[in-house]
Amino acid sequence: MKIICIGRNYADHIKELDNARPSEPIIFLKPDTAILLKKQPFFIPEFSNDVQHEVELLVRINKIGKHIDQKFAHKYYDEIGLGIDFTARDLQSELKQKGLPWEKAKSFDGAAVVGNFLKKEIFSDINNIDFSLKRNGKVVQKGNSVLMMWKIDALIEYISKYFTLKIGDIIFTGTPAGVGSVQPNDVLTGYIGETEMFSIKVK
Ligand code: ZN
């Protein structure tokens, strides 16, 4: 399986990092080795002094497809989840400055938290899902899928122009504002609505 991530999909997050607004979605990949194993803590890697949390809605692909039209995109996923796209921001800034790929900053072991998934039928509107992240019990990030610049079905159309989507692939749909550094002993808890989707200890 592969993880496809979308960068800069929420206007408020683009602003906080002082990034340019993209004219089309920004895509990068994480390998399956980036997935943080269930029940394991997240270890801050020694190569970064500024690992930041990015809470994101996840979409799990359940049907193989390529060149998927937006109209039919809903047939290719049946579950929505929540995760964290951990980012070594100091390393990413360095790579961005040099015009180099971001993988070392975003795709290292443990950099993808994949929490629980919910059947999409439970949502009355996929484009109106509230989610949030608490750090040590305090809300640090809050988002709603209505604020995505490219909505889930549009992302699937765009991504599948370049990559065949396979069963089990996961899309990280981008983070809203409020990203911040994590510290040893932090507990990060993610919610869709009021439902807890993951809880991660940082070491
Ligand atoms: Zn992200």
The helix tally amounts to 4
Largest sheet: 6 strands, mixed
Bound molecules: zinc ion
Our measurement of the CA-to-CA distance between the termini, rounded to an integer number of angstroms, reads 27 Å
Order of helices and strands: EHEEEEEHHEEEHEEEE
User: Based on the structure given, which CATH architecture is correct?
Assistant: Alpha-Beta Complex
According to CATH, the homologous superfamily is: Fumarylacetoacetase-like, C-terminal domain
Keywords:
203 residues, alpha+beta, Fumarylacetoacetate hydrolase, domain 2, four-stranded antiparallel sheet, 4 helices, 13 strands, binds zinc ion, Fumarylacetoacetase_C_sf
Describe this structure in words.
This protein has 203 residues and is α+β, with helices and mostly antiparallel strands. The protein has one domain (3-201): Fumarylacetoacetate hydrolase, domain 2. It has four helices and 13 strands. The chain has helices spanning 11-16, 89-97, 103-106, 152-162; strands at residues 3-7, 26-30, 51-53, 55-61, 77-85, 87-88, 112-119, 130-135, 138-144, 170-172, 180-181, 187-192, 195-201. It has a six-stranded mixed β-sheet with strand order 2-1-10-4-5-7, with helices on one face. It has a four-stranded antiparallel β-sheet with strand order 9-8-12-13, with no helix packed on it. A hairpin with a 2-residue loop joins strand 12 (187-192) and strand 13 (195-201). It is globular. The chain starts with a strand and ends with a strand.
